[in-house]
Amino acid sequence: MATDLSASASRGYARAVDRVCSAVDSMCGDPEAMSLGSADLTKLLARWERTLPADYEAGSKQPALLFCAVRLLIVRRGDHPERLVQVGLAEFARGRALAAWGESAELDEFTRIDKVNLVKAAWAAAHALERRIADGWALREAQVSHATVHRAQEILAEWDIQVAQPALRTPGEVRPAETVTELKAKLREANTRVGELQAKLDALTTMTANPYRETIELKKKAARTPKQNRLGLLHDGRSSPSGLVHTQDTDS
Questions:
Q1: Which pTM value belongs to this model?
Q2: How many CB atoms lie within 10 A of CB 63?
């Protein structure tokens, strides 16, 4: 019955056969006389199996993998009805191993936090893929073309570029806009000028109104006073510019 083997398993069996054959050749005086039906082969295999770990580092599993591969091939050979395998060799192949299996320590490359983050990232990627598949089926049902779907990112990038740039205008569109801007500036300047003139006018009106009212009052008093006392009224009983106090004049 044929058995399918992987490439790595086939290489492992081939390496084990090469090692045992090289060892038997070095230990046996007549290697060509040796076969699976030879009684002396069992002793040679036992010796090879015991000394094999010395060729590797302490605790290595390679020796056990090699001699187990050889034992398994002998067992398979003995199970074949048309193949001759010496009885003692068949019992040796099914017997207890003569060398230790070796030891190994599992190398954990990630901490617990790293493992949690990896699991979260894996689930996030799985959910994103599910959403993408769902969106694809929705677009399929909406009869959206494949070209539109594949160019979606390019279209969005072009849109961002257009929005970031100022709107382009023809010379005919630019001139009216500039005219409106100039007119608004002139209007603001005119309003400012009008405000300044209005303030000056208000100040001038105030300055003019006060002397006018005082003059009217003085004229009214002068009209009610004899002529000889008008000058004193005009100075309101105070000293004249010459330093004399005006009093009521009498007829000489």
A1: 0.39
A2: 23
